[in-house]
């Protein structure tokens, strides 16, 4: 696998080796020793799978307790995935990085603990799979507004379209008022 540091050094883009022939393809989607070599020393405790239709935007989510790191990928469709550094002591606090993840490119993104995360679905449908480093805790879940002006995230939403949002995402906090990490 190839590991590429993004503009936020803790967020890593992972390009797995893909072996393709006339039958299809094979790739390793997780290998603990290779993750350790890349500097990811976390234990994953849960796998999640969501399916979303085109125009859906999920995020920006994080947990203030049971803080989760996420190894994310797409198995069907295409999304734009975003990680926002919400660690106040970090030199990249308040900065964000995004990557296109798709069934074609088979890329993964490592979103470390201390980041808010979200994605926007660009294809007709997308299956989003991710491993997390701690268990889901609904009482600890927080949400920052996807369109927070301070963050200025470029979501690649087609001009004139509005994203499909959950009621939770409609009620996200401003970045300025959000609970963040030290």
Describe this structure in words.
This protein is mainly β and 182 residues long. The protein has one domain: Jelly Rolls. It contains 2 helices and 13 strands. The strands form 3 sheets. A 6-stranded antiparallel sheet has the order 1-2-10-7-12-5, with no helix packed on it. Strands 9-8-11-6-13 form a 5-stranded antiparallel sheet, with no helix packed on it. A two-stranded antiparallel sheet has the order 3-4. Strand 1 (2-5) and strand 2 (12-15) form a beta hairpin.
Descriptive labels:
mainly beta; single chain; 182 residues; 2 helices
Shape: globular
Order of helices and strands: EEEEHEEEEEEEEEH
Q: Count of DSSP E strands?
A: 13
CATH architecture grouping: Sandwich
Unreliable stretches covering 5 or more consecutive residues = none
> What is CATH's topology name?
Jelly Rolls
**Mean pLDDT across all amino acids:** 96
Q: How are the SSEs placed, and which strands pair?
A:
Elements: E1 2-5, E2 12-15, E3 18-21, E4 24-27, H1 32-37, E5 46-53, E6 57-63, E7 70-76, E8 78-85, E9 96-102, E10 108-111, E11 115-121, E12 125-132, E13 141-143, H2 167-170
Antiparallel strand pairs: 1-2, 2-10, 3-4, 5-12, 6-11, 6-13, 7-10, 7-12, 8-9, 8-11
Summarize the structure.
By secondary structure, the chain is mainly beta. The chain has helices at residues 32-37, 167-170; strands spanning 2-5, 12-15, 18-21, 24-27, 46-53, 57-63, 70-76, 78-85, 96-102, 108-111, 115-121, 125-132, 141-143.
